[in-house]
Every structure is written in structure tokens, then in C-alpha cells.
Amino acid sequence: MKTTILGYPRIGAKRELKKACESYWSQNIDEKTLLEAGKNIRKENWLLQQQIGIDAIPSNDFSFYDQVLDTCLTVGCIPKRYQNIHKKNPFDLYFAMARGLQNETIDCTAMEMTKWFDTNYHYIVPEFEKEQSFDFFSTKIVDEFKEALELGIKTRPVLIGPVSFLLLGKEKEAGFHRLELLDKLLPVYIEVIHKLVTLGADILQFDEPCLALDLTDKERKAIEITYHKIHQKFPDTKVYLANYFDCYGDNLSTVLQLPVDTLHLDLVRCPSQLEDILTSKFFNPNTKLSLGLVDGRNIWKNDFEKSLKIIDKALTKVAAQNIYISASCSLLHSPYDLDVEQNEKSLPAEVKSWLAFAKQKLQEIVSIKALASSTNEEYAELFEENKFANLNRTTSSLIHNPKVKKRVSELKNADSQRQNSFTIRQKEQQNYLKLPLFPTTTIGSFPQTKEVRSWRSKFKKGLLSQTAYETLIAKETEDSIRFQEEIGLDVLVHGEFERNDMVEYFGEKLNGFAFSSFGWVQSYGSRCVKPPILFGDVSREKPMTVKWSTFAQSLTDIPVKGMLTGPVTILQWSFVRNDQPRETTCNQIALAIRDEVVDLESNGINIIQIDEPAIREGLPLRQENWQNYLDWAVKAFRISASGVQNKTQIHTHMCYSEFNDIIASIANMDADVITIETSRSEMELLDAFVNFNYPNEIGPGVYDIHSPRIPSVEEIDYLLTKAKNVLPKEHIWVNPDCGLKTRDWPETKIALKNLVKAAKKLRQQELALL
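Above: the chain sequence. Below: its structure as C-alpha cells.
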């Protein structure tokens, strides 16, 4: 047997990539220094895998921003608005496509960004035109293969498969389907493969995660055409075909008849598919199987006993030399190294003993291979240690809380219902809040400057007293309130200066969570998050946000929104326990958030936002499993939101999601106001709400906060006018498309002033029509 992985985390063990990219963007380092930072990370990753004992090491799993964006550059899929940039500096082009670019001579928007299947990772969405051309533009994949060779490591280059690449993108004009571009795209892939084969690559990994979806016959045919053509051109080159996040499903018979050397199976998400493959009439026993046994998306220790049973099943039909032991998917979604976690206050030793981060997952893969291949006493001890850790977790008193279990079991249907329908609530809220037409607000957070982050760091390290820390946060909060008053926002926020992350902050105040100190994972670009570890029953002992929300409200007569993260998002953006149904865990969180909502209302906060950006993300990849998930996810949100009076206005926020196929469930959440990301798509995502005749109020985001660009009044006015043409004017809110935490104050202030000016302009136009 051999060991392998599909990819490794690329941000660096100490987030070196984040720091280097942000330094480059702020012009504190040059391109050469940035390139060197990337080279160092790749070298460390490759050498670590080699040292631990990974037999087949991938390359081109590294990216300065996103692997789909890298593919766009590789195949020359560059939208026309960037043509004047790429003639000057490839890096400026690359980051302009990701983040937009605005200077004295250039002003171009970023490409769209959305979730990578059902993960919290965001990818850049390729843009396709009917007359799209492709060419081998970026040689990154070749350069990195050569780079590894210089270290004495012959890697397996990773490419996003051409069919998935096309399906992950969007047509930017009507009249064609992007799959029609396959004939133009394949020659470029052939050219890339030729370059790699010439350098000595004998096996290539093609990631085709679209194979986890419900594909049409046309899409399956495109898979067939692709891999037969590749085999025809390169009959001696081995293809390692990787699918992950679910089964091959209805695509299995197509896949089993492809001329590929190795099939990768995600046996964490879909353990049943091994049996389906081994018993299929199309299965060729000479096909190698890559068994994805170690969870690439969660941090719990592998169960060696369970993994070995799966290997035994595979060995009934497949020779040992035709088996790879692997992780279920790329380890991109895992933190780097558990060994550096030494803070037992935030991560108790008992909880730590149940965990494995990326480095430990490499060791698990090697250990599983050793256990499957040896009866050595050394490995027997390893097996017993693993068995003990997993058994300890099932019986630990840290996990179970009878009161929480009882409260969930007693939930009634009435607990997920507001007092009255939206039509009645809307009138009461209008009378009580007295907001103008096109009310303006923000999504919640304001820029967290280096100073704010340093205060929190010093406070956590005991270098700043609680009184001193809270005095600083209070001053920052008051300054933000005064700024919002000054520019004329209609609904204010307190700015969230006391918060580190929208999920981590709440996890720290709830029972059932533990926290790493360095467990960062990439969310998009340089944005890294440190997901909480949800290991036990969840409960709230005392209010979590009331203090700062009521303090902010005491400073002004203008309404201040209470800001909460919803139960589904807390679930999705944590490393979640896998020993009970996710629905049960989600209901526990929902009840804790419900208690907070009720406390906010009783303390005079009558606009409360419960953010649920992860609702769409949690949707199962196969449609047959959607309804069950949507039923419990929507119900959990409603449980969290339904304990208040009619006059209290519940908002929710969702970003970077496609809503067309789940719009009925979004409406069923029954939030009084929903804010969504629509700026990068120029209101395209609004179509789902319009076509459905969405009944409640909606704030289509009018500027992109993930880009440093500052939108003009005219640009915002253009988007608002598009929204006004399709939505009832009484239902439209005006807001950015997401929180402003990652932006700088100077750009934020100008952008928000422009936002308010655009809303007032629209208001005046409507008054003039009366």
C-alpha cells in the first residue's frame, strides 16, 4: 500500500502567507519577497510530508489566493476588464481579479466569490463568454513541479479537472452553456499535461468534485470525452481522479468506465460507496483505489479500528499494491499542527487527546498503513492508544449535560413560531421604529484596527486589566456611534470591537466549546478563521452581548441593532462533534441564541440581527438530501428568533450564496429583514427573490466589502435603482454586502458616506413623485 494526500494547508504554520500577501498589498514588501514566502511554505510542506512518510506527495495545491483563480490564470480565462493590467504585472492581474483594483488610471471590480461546495472556503468564480478563448498563460503548475524536483521530490501535480472548472463558473452573456467551451479548453489542458510529462511527471491528479453532484447526461458525457481524450494523447500517463465531499452516486458507472489509473473515494462523507464500487459490474480490479479514510474537514482523531475494517473490505477485491491510504479531501480545511497547542485553559488536555490537525492526520495516514501491513508489537500499542482515546471521548463527563438534552427533547412547534405573520409585524414595526424609506444600515462589524486587535491580545495575555480594556473598547464604540450619527445612518451598530470572530466570540461564552490558539484555516485569500471546537452539549449561562449593545444604545436615540450569529452558522463554522446528529447540536445552539435574543429585547434592543451566512453552505450536495436538512436548519433559526414581540424586528444576513434553489426555505425562515450579497453580481442574486415574490424586507448589498475599492455614489445609485425596479420600495434596505471588520477606516468612511448619499438621493426622487 501507499500513502498520499490530495492537498495540504497553504497559509503557513504561522499564517506566513496571510502576512506576506497583506504586506504586499500595502506595498510594504515587493513581489520577490512575496514569491519567496510562498516558496518557503511549499518547501516546508513537501519536506514535512516526506519526513512523516507520505509516499505520493501532491504539488500545485499551494495558492496565493485561490486554486480556482489559479486555474483561470493557467488556462488564460481572464475577463476583458483586466486586459490592461496583465500586460504590466501578472501579480497585479492576479490580485485585481480576486480583489478588484482602483487607482488613478484603473478602476475594475473583482470577480464573484462563492462557497466551495458545502465548505466555508470561498473560491473565485470563473467568468465565461460565448466566444471565450483559452491559452496556457500561467506556468505556476509547471514551475512548482520543477521546484519540488530540485528538492529531490517527484510530486503528483494537481489540476482542477476541466469539467469541474467549467461548471464552477458562470456565463456572463446569454445564448450558450459554458460546457460548450470544453472543446476550446481541452487543448490547453493537453498543453499543460505535455509540459509536465516532458519534465518527468508520470501521474497527474485531476480534481473533479462536480462528480459529487447530481449531473446531467450532458455533463457526464463531458467527463467521458475529457478523460478519453487525455488518455488518447497520453496513454502512458497515469490519471488520479479525485472526487470528494460525497459519493460518486449516479455518476459511478460513468466514472468506473473511464481510462484512469486511480479513483479517490471520500469514505468519511460516504463510506457506503466502497461496497457499491467493489460490487459494480464495471469495476476493474486493476484500478487503484485511494481510500479517503482520515477526515480532511474535521479535527477528531481517526478511529483506526474502523479504518482497518474498511481496508480489509477493499482487500477482498483489490491487491494491496493498488491501494492508497489518504485523507477524505484536501487538508486545506484543517489547521496545521496540534503539537503547538499548549493552552489547557482554552483547550483542555482531555479534549486535545481526541483531536488531530493536518500534521497529525499525515501521521494517522502513515500509521493506518503500518497497522494494515504489520503485526509488529509497536503498532499494536499505537492501535490500543487510539482505541482508548476514542472510547474515552464517548464516555467523558465533559460532553454530556442532561439539562440541555431535556430542554431539546421538550421543544414544541410553537417554539419556532412568531406571534403573528409578517404583514402584521411589519405594520407594528413601522409604527414603532419610524424608519424612513430605504433605511440605511451596516451588516454589523466596523474595521478592527491593529490597535483594537492589540488591546484584545494584551487583555487575553493579562497585560491589560479588564477595566482598562473595557474603557478602550467603550471609547472605540462611542466613536463609531458618533460617526454613524454624523453621516446619517438610520439603524446603527455598536461595531463589535470586543469580538474576535463572529463564531469564536460566541463559542467562548457558551458551554460545550473549546478553542485552539493556532488552529487557523483559510476562508478566502488572506482571510483566516479559527473555528471553535464544538465537543459537548451547548448551553448559555449568562448574557453574551447585552452589555455592549445596551451601552451603544445608551449613547444615541437612533436604533442600535443587536448582533448575533445564528445557530446554523455557529454549527457550520465550528469543528462539530460527530457523535450525535447535527440537528440535535443545532437545536442546542438555537436555544442558547433564543435566550440571548429575549434578553436583548428586554433590555431595549428592538432590532436584532441573527446572521446565517452558512444556511446555503450546509445544504447537502445531492438534492435528495436537501429537504431534511432545510427542515431542521430553518426550524433552528426560527427557534432562535421566535421568542420576541411583534414590534421587535429580526434581521438575518447571508453572503456569497446562490439562493434560487432554496428560496422557499429562505422565505420560511420568516426574518423581517434579510440582507444579502449582490454587489459583485450586480444584483444578479436578487433575481431569485424577485422571481419568488419574496414577501419580507430585503437589503441587497450595494458595495463589495471584500475589495479595497471605494464605490461611488453613482455606482451605488445604479445598483439601488436596479433593486427598486424589481422590489417594492417599502421593502428595500440599503447596506454593504457584509461586515466591515477587514476593511480600513478611511475607505470605510468614504464608502458609507456614499451609501447614505445614494439612499437619500433615491428617497428624494420618490418624494418628488408624490
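Residues 3 and 55 are 5 Å apart (CA to CA).
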